[in-house]
Amino acid sequence: MAETALHTSSKTPTFGTVLTAMVTPFKDNGEVDYDAAAKLAIKLVDEGCDGLVVTGTTGETSTLRDEENVKMFATVVKAVGHRAKILAGSTTNDTAHSISLSLAAKEAGVHGILVTVPYYNKPSQAGVIAHVEAIIAAIQLPVMLYDIPGRSGIALSPESIIALAKNPLVVALKDAKADYQSTTTVLANTDLDVYSGDDLLTLPLMAAGAVGVVSVTAHVAAAKYRILVDAMHAGDLATARKAHFELEPIQRAVMSHAQGAVVAKHILNWQGFLPNAVVRLPLVAPSETELETIRTNLREGGWEI
Question: Annotated site (Part of a proton relay during catalysis), which positions (predicted)?
Fold first, then answer.
């Protein structure tokens, strides 16, 4: 085992190192199941998560009403906020609405805000920076930037991230851009806590200095991500690589055949952790062919589903 950790920053990550982008459970009638959400949050923290993102993209935030978002924040904070950091997925492509919902999230007790790049309206980089700065000025909470051009339609440039990182409340980046050069530039020029936003890239991004992962697959494999992330921090590449390979078919099951929230809910239901796999339109259940492929991947990873 190496004597020094691969990540060289001496500071403790603000939001933890293994985070799940948590699904929002629904009842059979489509209403939010807050009791199931609390139980799921407890399960995830028990299995190794030290942070949760509540009602982000995987939490189907785009089809939740504001009052549902806020009640989800309060529910998860009450359930595990004393044991894990809770981030609110409370920003949209509307700056004023983002501020309003984020202030409500702050009142609910969250520890930070996940600020996504505004989607659909495609602002300039200057517009994105102004959007983030307006939210931070209003809420005065630590934020994690979320760079996911596949969803938002535009990427945060490394220059924009570096500029935003000068604000002391910008403490982290969820990197779902799959642009290793951009990530390397950010790591070399900021002190941000960078998290892999692509489950399968956790090991290589941590090799460059990322602190951990914000994962969908961690719904069903949090303990294995904990092994991988802790091993990378300890400089134990052999253990981390073994966990990375063992996670590969599970990641493929969750992330390759249907939208991640849809698959995660089905697997959690198969495992008995959720009472159903209900999602809200426009999301729909996987086809029987997709479900069988998911089961095949899980069996490849040693699971019996």
Answer: 57, 120
Residues 279, 228 contacting (CB under 8 angstroms): no
What would the pLDDT profile of 36-57 be if each residue is shown by its tens digit?
A: 999 999 999 999 999 999 999 9
The reply, when asked if residue 171 is annotated as ligand binding, is: no
Pairing assessment for the beta strands 112-116 and 143-147 based on DSSP bridges: parallel
Q: Is 12 annotated as a binding residue?
A: no
Q: What's the token pair of residue 255?
A: 């992330």
Instruction: Report how far residue 217's alpha carbon sits from residue 252's, in angstroms, rounded to the nearest whole number.
Output: 9
- Residues annotated as catalytic are 146, 174
Q: Across-strand partners of 215?
A: 20
Question: Do the beta carbons of residue 183 and residue 210 sit within 8 Å?
Answer: yes
Q: Is residue 258 part of a domain?
A: no
Domain annotation covers residue 146: yes
> Which helix or strand (DSSP H or E) is residue 166 part of?
none
Domain count along the chain: 1
Identify the domain containing residue 112 by its residue range: 18-238
Question: Per-residue pLDDT tens for 215-271?
Answer: 999 999 999 999 999 999 999 999 999 999 999 999 999 999 889 999 999 999 999
CATH number of the domain enclosing 157: 3.20.20.70
The two structure tokens encoding residue 234:
């300890």
Q: What is the C-alpha to C-alpha distance for residues 74 and 60, in angstroms, rounded to an integer?
A: 17
